[in-house]
Design goal:
Blueprint lengths: L2 H6 L1 H18 L3 H25 L2 H45 L2 H20 L3 H24 L1 H36 L4 H40 L4 H11 L8 H13 L3 H15 L6 H10 L3 H15 L3 H21 L2 H11 L13
Helix pairs in contact: 3-4, 3-7, 4-5, 4-7, 4-9, 8-9, 8-11, 8-12, 8-14, 9-10, 10-11, 12-13, 13-14
Length: about 375
């Protein structure tokens, strides 16, 4: 291809790059929904294929597979949420009864904290009243932060519901039109058919492996949290273990959303030792599993180095937030696959095939102007 024809691709290529970037900006607010739909599409693809072959109606097959996705994802979350709210209501009632026995929350907290403050004062040599004042100030700051967080909860919930609705709508179209989208994308890529198929299998395999990692971590953290709750005497340890399984998928905080408040409730109930021990158990045993089990599971099934998977999970969450749990390993897997293909050196052959299909070939078989 001569220099003049090279320049013909500059303006269209630049316009295409700008258009793709603008499309990314349009889709960016809805990336969690798109990524979630992509994950579910990969998982539901075999079922959707069977439904499409048996029903021979692509819209109905995609709709049934999407409804199954709604049932699998939404129904357990609603049931667990309802059970958790009911259990929290009972805990609040018990604490309120204890508070009423003392006349007020301040009097109740003062009564249960006095023995601990006396021990701390004797150990540290600091006056008990100074320690009490410092604790009260910290509690005031914490309560203010919790109030601000609670104020923003409604907005976050509304945003999450919007993302969920958009995600399932996107899932329907991914299932219905996913094959055609991938086929059109393959025509733009300088890959052979085998390379393209291998790339798609690598990405889908990483998504499935990451899901296995999420499930493995959730099961382990749920079991250990339930065990800790049972030993600490928290009511309904099995329920809280199941809730921990769901919460473990949330980056950074994860299982801490369950054992953290549980320890606080124990302390507020006057069970200081059990509450602190539950915190130690949650931080040292439960939370650490996420950094060990998930990289091992993902690396084993996706054939990636565990250390690289570990950093891809941390970096993915840092850069992309919650969806980085899936995007991080997928990006790592994509980079590894592309580097492997570059080492094989077969891109040029595929590029020549693409250009020949477009009519740009020389009579001697080399690529150039026709």
């Amino acid at each position: 291809m001569n220099r003049r024809s090279d320049w013909r691709w500059v303006v269209p290529g630049a316009m295409a790059a700008i258009a793709v970037y603008l499309c990314y900006l349009l889709a960016k607010p809805y990336l969690p929904a798109i990524v979630g739909a992509s994950v579910l599409a990969v998982l539901l693809a075999p079922l959707h294929t069977r439904l499409r072959k048996s029903l021979r109606r692509k819209n109905l097959a995609a709709l049934l597979a999407t409804l199954l996705g709604v049932i699998v994802v939404v129904a357990p979350a609603v049931l667990l949420g309802w059970a958790a709210v009911d259990e929290l209501r009972q805990i609040y009632t018990e604490l309120n009864e204890q508070k009423m026995a003392d006349g007020s929350w301040i009097a109740y907290l003062d009564r249960i904290s006095t023995p601990v403050l006396e021990r701390v004062s004797r150990w540290s040599g600091v006056e008990q009243e100074m320690i009490r004042k410092a604790v009260v100030e910290r509690l005031q700051l914490t309560s203010a932060a919790m109030l601000r967080a609670a104020t923003g909860t409604l907005g976050e919930l509304t945003s999450s519901l919007v993302q969920i609705v958009i995600g399932f709508v996107t899932l329907f179209f991914f299932l219905r039109d996913g094959g055609g989208i991938l086929e059109k994308a393959s025509r733009l890529m300088p890959f052979s058919h085998d390379q393209w198929d291998s790339l798609l299998q690598q990405i889908s395999g990483t998504i499935v492996a990451n899901l296995y990692g999420v499930l493995a971590v959730g099961a382990a953290q749920g079991f250990l949290t339930g065990l800790g709750m049972w030993v600490a005497g928290v009511p309904s340890p099995v329920l809280w273990g199941l809730i921990t399984m769901a919460a473990s998928a949330i980056p950074v905080v994860g299982s801490g959303l369950v054992w953290g408040p549980a320890g606080l409730v124990l302390i507020a109930s006057g069970h200081w030792v059990r509450g602190v021990l539950l915190w130690v158990w949650g931080a040292a045993a439960v939370s650490m599993l996420d950094n060990i089990v998930r990289p091992m599971v993902v690396s084993g099934r996706a054939h990636l180095n565990p250390l690289l998977v570990f950093f891809s999970l941390l970096g993915g969450v840092t850069v992309f937030g919650f969806i980085g749990v899936f995007l991080g390993p997928v990006i790592l897997s994509l980079a590894a696959a592309l580097l492997s293909m570059l080492a094989e050196g077969d891109f040029g052959k595929r590029r020549a095939e693409v250009i020949v299909e477009g009519g740009l070939t020389r009579t001697d078989g080399t690529v150039g102007d026709s």
